[in-house]
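Write out this protein's structure.
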Amino acid sequence: MAANVARNFTLPTILLSGACLQSLLTLLLPIRYALLPAFTLLIGQVLNTALISKGYIKNPFMKNARLGKYTAQIPNADGTVSQKASDKGVVVFIIGAVSYSPQGIFDPDFKKVGDFFRGMFVGIEADATKWGYLGKGHNSMDLDDSNSVSTITITYWQSIEQLHAYAQSPAHREGWAWWDEYRKQHNEVGIYHETYFAPAGQWETIYENCMPMGLGKIRHPESFGQKEGAPGGMGSGLVEARDVKYRGMASRMGRKSGFANSN
């Protein structure tokens, strides 16, 4: 949450806020004490970076990284992996919102859109099998060149038909009805989506020294992939790409003929 709030502000705004805070400390405290917090924090950050770079402190940014090569596969209904890579189609559905309001993420209407998005995904995840929902692979917020705040969520589904069926469900129609009324009078908040369908044998993934992301972040029944946690739970869909059928792009697509210089 703190990171998203920080992304809502431009660099000049952040620097000016820091300058105002430093000025206030200078007015309230003797100069040597007023400067102490800023210098202490800066020296601490520099020292911590140096110790991590030299290997004296464990790199916290690699906490969830999986070293080596991995690929993500979509399991069968029983959680087992097919003998053929990329044997199922996958729908990639990207959805998000953008705020052109000077209030950014604090705009009440932008918050309302976010509330509807979160509510929809709670319902989707509660009945994922019905909707053919596989999960979210990416969720972030950013500030673009025009200083507008945008969100993006990348989701994965089993079929276009199931995605469309959810779009016609009461939960989605409620949000859409609110949006229909909102856009008649306001235009400082926008919404968008993109839909892509990759048939079986037309997609592949590879992750080397990465934390789970994209399709590799999706959780599957415990009997599939790299098992984690208690039996009957959910495990990662990542599979080590050491097997010959996962070594190249063509093989990860389940193809017999390869591509030149593929990894």
